[in-house]
């Protein structure tokens, strides 16, 4: 009688017995393996991503593509390592180029100007996160690139830009704030136009065929802003 | 996953411990899915437009490895800290005990806080144009939450009964 009531109580007790054996060991090993393999895969990706490009043309193509995509990693990865390490050098070279080399091309449609003015209105003169968000309103797409190379020496090559188009598409609806656009048309705040990248370049007022200088470092090719400025404008 | 809560009642059926095994297996699978989601999120951009639309965390790490602005190239590996908690949680998935449960909760809270914080911060730069990466991070946090719900805890005397 006493035994049967104890058995009845045992029947109603929650089943909390631990499971183990081979199945559980397999689970432990599988989880441990997964926890090691996943980070290992990322480390391999990190280590296999070598900076630079396989050829001078590829280096210039990656730089222009990085600019069009607003891809900082692509840009940094293909600029000469010395200039990446010392940003001041790249900055000086860029300032020299910007002061004497200009591109006079087509005039953007008025709709584009209006959206860009609305974007500028949202910047508020600051360079914070909001100003970066404004970039979402602009889509750039590079197409029809035609490049030609001219060897200066074994480790230095000029890459000429013979043809190429940058399609500019602006969409005011992507601005982070409410866009105020004068004369907003039926197409909303969208506008686009194409820039002919190879045309209209002037150095000190004289037209020239645009090019960048690439350098070889450890078997990989990089764009050197410093060498480009020196070659185009003479040594600083 | 470890044990039932002291107040939990586990349905008893023809196979003793089957429910517990099912919960532990399901929890481990969910932690594995969360770790996988975090890992893939490192390889794809988190946003569709704007400043971060073409940059995955691993590419950002790659850029750091080039020694930009004289930052030591080893800094590129710092991005691996983002999914680190998810990998530890996967390794801990089959472990049992109160201490493990406490660590599990803390790590999930930390990874969820960091993950969602980065998504919000990134969205302020990329105009809230969420993409695959941001979606995977949120999914990983939700999977981790579901895996936590599979956690169980057993009193020693219950287990020995």
What radius of gyration of chain B results from the CA coordinates?
A: 19 Å
User: Number of DSSP strands of chain A?
Assistant: 8
Helix content of chain A: 40-55%
Major sheet of chain B:
none
The rough form of chain A would be described as flat
* Overall number of structural domains of chain A: 2
What's the helical proportion of residues of chain B? 55-70%
As a percent range, the share of strand residues of chain B is under 5%
The ordered H/E elements of chain B are HHHHHH
From the 3D structure, determine the CATH topology of the largest domain in chain A: Nuclear Transport Factor 2, Chain: A
Flag low-confidence runs of chain B.
Answer: 1-14
Biggest sheet record of chain A: 5 strands, antiparallel
Helix tally of chain B equals: 6
The two chains with the largest interface, and their residue counts, are: A-B, 51 and 66 residues
Shape of chain B: elongated
Question: Mean pLDDT of chain A, rounded to whole units?
Answer: 83
Structural class of chain B: mainly alpha
CATH top level class name of the largest domain in chain A: Alpha Beta
Question: How many strands appear in the DSSP assignment of chain B?
Answer: 0
Average pLDDT reading of chain B: 85
Topology:
The complex is a heterodimer of chains A (236) and B (161).
Chain A: H1 2-12, H2 22-48, H3 56-68, H4 72-76, H5 81-85, H6 87-100, E1 101-103, H7 110-123, H8 129-133, E2 138-153, E3 156-171, E4 190-196, E5 201-203, E6 206-207, E7 211-217, E8 220-223, H9 225-233
Antiparallel strand pairs in A: 1-5, 2-3, 3-4, 3-7, 5-6, 7-8
Helix pairs in contact in A: 6-9
Chain B: H1 18-41, H2 57-65, H3 84-92, H4 98-125, H5 132-149, H6 156-160
Structure description:
Chain A has 236 residues and is of the alpha+beta class. Chain A has 2 domains: 2-47, no CATH class; 48-233, Nuclear Transport Factor 2, Chain: A (Roll), CATH 3.10.450. Chain A has 9 helices and 8 strands. Chain A has helices spanning 2-12, 22-48, 56-68, 72-76, 81-85, 87-100, 110-123, 129-133, 225-233, and strands at residues 101-103, 138-153, 156-171, 190-196, 201-203, 206-207, 211-217, 220-223. In chain A, the strands form 2 sheets. In chain A, strands 2, 3, 4, 7 and 8 form a 5-stranded antiparallel beta sheet that branches. Chain A has a 3-stranded antiparallel beta sheet with strand order 1-5-6. In chain A, helix 6 packs parallel to helix 9 (225-233). Chain A is flat. Chain A starts with a helix and ends with a helix. Chain B is mainly alpha-helical. Chain B has one domain (18-160). Helices cover 58% and strands 0% of the residues of chain B. Chain B contains 6 helices and no strands. Chain B has helices spanning 18-41, 57-65, 84-92, 98-125, 132-149, 156-160. The radius of gyration of chain B is 19 Å and the shape is elongated. At the A-B interface, helix 2, helix 4, helix 5 and helix 8 of A face helix 1, helix 2, helix 3 and helix 4 of B.
